[in-house]
Amino acid sequence: MRLDKVTGFLEDTLSLESFSNDPSMNGLQVEASGEVRKVALAVDACRESINRAARRDADLLIVHHGLFWNGRVPITGIMAARVKALLDKNISLYAAHLPLDCHPEIGNNARIANVLGIGETEHFGKYAGVDIGLCGKLPRPLKIEGLRRKLTRILDSPVQTFAFGPAVVRKLGIVSGGGASLTQAAAEAGCDALLTGETSHSSYHTARENGISLIFAGHYASETFGVKALGELMKEKLGLQTFFIDLPTGL
User: Fold this and answer.
1) Of the residues 42, 72, 91, 152, which has the fewest C-beta atoms closer than 10 A?
2) Would you say residue 237 lies in a domain?
3) Minimal CA–CA distance to 65: which of 102, 95, 31?
4) Is residue 36 one of the residues assigned to a domain?
5) What SS3 class is residue 19?
6) In this predicted model, what pLDDT tens digit does every residue of 31-57 receive, in sequence order?
7) Do 91 and 122 belong together in one domain?
8) What confidence tens digit (pLDDT) does each residue in 64-91 have?
9) Which domain holds residue 29?
C-alpha cells in the first residue's frame, strides 16, 4: 500500500488537524519507503525501536513519542544517528502524541477506562487547547489499595499512590503519561482519584489540599494502549501486517 494512503488514513482517523497546539510534530516525521507492507508500533522513537522494526522488515514505524517537538532541532548527534538508521533501513516514521491520548475509541485514556469497566465518561482538563482527561464512575467502588492492585495486574507494572482522597474510589479521572499537572482539574470535576503515569512532586500538596488521591501507573505503561489499538485498527481496516515493539522504561 502507498505510504500517502496510509498517512491519509491516520490523519483522518486521528483528526490531526484538531491538535495544532500539540508540542509534538504529529504526522509523518521521516519519509523513507513509498510503499508500506508491514507496520511496527512503539511508544517511543529511539534507536532500539528503530532497530527492532528493521529486524522484522517494517516499512513504517508509528510511535506515540516522536523525534521532533517544539522548536528547531539540529540533526546532529543521537538525532542524526536515529534519522540515519531510519533512512538506511528504508523505514518511515510517523508520530501521534495528543491525538493518540484523546481519541474516543483507540486513545490511551479511552482504552484504560474500558479495561476498568468505566462506561459513560466526561472530559476534563485542558492541555494545548484541548480537553485531554476522561473521568467516570467505576462499575463498583473500590478501596484505593484494591484499585492499585487491580491496575498492577492490568498493566503488569508497579503502581504508586498518594492516598489523600476518600477511602473508597467511585469516580476516577484518567490522564495517561505526564498528567499530574491536571490534579486541580480532576478535583474540580469531582474525581476521588486521578490515574496518570508519572509521579509529581509539584502535585503532592495540590492533591492533599483538594482531598484527591493520585495513582501513578508509569508513563510508559499507561501509554501502550493507544499504539496497540491503532495497530489492530490498521490490520482490520487496511489489511496491513502490524506488530508492537515493547520497550518498557520502568518510568
Assistant:
1) 72
2) no
3) 95
4) yes
5) helix
6) 998 899 999 999 999 999 999 999 999
7) no
8) 999 999 877 899 999 999 999 999 999 9
9) 3-96
